[in-house]
Amino acid sequence: MKKLDNFSNCLSILKNADFKLAETNDIYRTGIIGQFNLSFELAWKALQEIMRLHGVQGSDPGSPREILQLAYKVGFINDSSVWLLMLKKRNTSVHIYNEAEIDEMIMLIRDSFLPAFTDLEKTLQCKLAEAESDWD
């Protein structure tokens, strides 16, 4: 599935980021935050698509917040607080102007958001396989 493939490819780039280099290189820091934003967008869209395949009611229309809340409710994600924080940080990341906020964002991406993305990727791969086996 194209949306899941796009998310996986983008996540792979983020997983390979050198967070040590990000401590001293401003362009690299900006790149990690940009890659996080792209990964988030692709994550919720892949999530929405796979919930549709599973016939989850309410997954057709929806904002990222609605999709994340629905995914938590039906068990596609297991930590809604991390995902809602991710949504908030994605929405405010273009307005980060000071080093302390950038440092916090980089730390959140490394320590909280990357593991959540990785868990989602595994879940979506399993859920896609389930949906495809139902078609056979």
From TrEMBL:
Name of the protein described by the UniProt record: Nucleotidyltransferase substrate binding protein
Organism: Blautia intestinalis
